[in-house]
Amino acid sequence: MPRPRIVSEIQLKISETAPPSVDSIGPHDWLSEESLSVFHRVLESGSTFEVYLSEAANCKIVSQAEESAPKRLEVMGFMLGEVCSWRGETYTIVWDIGTTSLKNTTAKVRFDHRALPRLFGELDRSGFDYVIVGWYHSHPGHTCFLSKTDLYTQKTMFNQPFHSALVVDPINADIKVFKLSNEGYCEVPFALTCAARESEAVENRQRTRRLRTR
Ligand SMILES: [Zn+2]
User: Fold this and answer.
1) What is the mean pLDDT of residues 30-42?
2) Which of 18, 70, 72, 130 could bond to 106 as cystine, CB 3.0-4.6 Å?
3) pLDDT classification of 1: cutoffs 50, 70, 90
4) Distance (Å) from CA 166 to ligand 1 centroid
5) Which domain holds residue 167?
6) Mapping DSSP to helix (H, G, I), strand (E, B) and coil, where does residue 140 land?
7) Rounded to the nearest whole angstrom, what is the distance from the C-alpha of residue 137 to the centroid of ligand 1?
8) What is the pLDDT of residues 151-196, one digit of tens each?
């Protein structure tokens, strides 16, 4: 499968940036009781979440999953964003997603290979130095976990320590983020960032980039 040219991992620079502030983040509405209590534990400890999901990216993921839910079709895409580090902890911010035509069934999903060049073209033209920080897909009606195939995908294509896998079940209103752990995988706590702060952050980043390239 051809790789997008957004920013190759060789060029990946991890910037030392403070994570979104506590008053600009919140839990996802679809967190299970257990995931919600982990969210609050991380929040209260003042630790950095491993993944911050922007409201813009969340809206696209959830609406795409919901659109295909009546037919119980799975959807998928790349999560695009930044890898940052703060006080020795690495975290990612998902700013946007990239997806294209899919070959999907009720239990399987993959990109339509004929549509990939268009997707990569769009990503290249997005004008951002985004990195693929992971991928998302839906499990309409069968809860959130990584299947054997999902785990294989993670191990072969998303095996950097910062790569995550988001799984959403639009029928049970459930969402979870996973990372590789030893031979298997584990759930990692993530936070949703608020829209107003987001546009501010994106503007600041764009401004910094413009200044840097002058
Ligand atoms: Zn799956």
Assistant:
1) 97
2) 72
3) very low
4) 10
5) 48-213
6) coil
7) 7
8) 999 999 899 999 999 999 999 999 999 999 998 999 999 999 976 5
What is the distance between the alpha carbons of residues 96 and 210, in angstroms, rounded to a whole number? Answer: 20
Q: What is the CATH number of the domain that holds 78?
A: 3.40.140.10
56 within domain boundaries: yes
Q: What is the pTM of this model?
A: 0.84
Q: How far is the CA of 211 from the centre of ligand 1 (A)?
A: 42
Distance, in Å, from the CA atom of 100 to the CA atom of 76, rounded to the nearest integer, reads: 9
The count of domains in the chain is: 1
Centroid of chain to Cα 154: 13
How many angstroms does the Cα of residue 184 sit away from the middle of ligand 1? Answer: 14
Q: Are 4 and 132 in contact (CB under 8 A)?
A: yes
Give 151-210 as a DSSP string: HHHHHHH--STT-EEEEEETTTTEEEEEEEETTEEEE--EEEEPHHHHHHHHHHHHHHHH
Position 42 in a domain? no
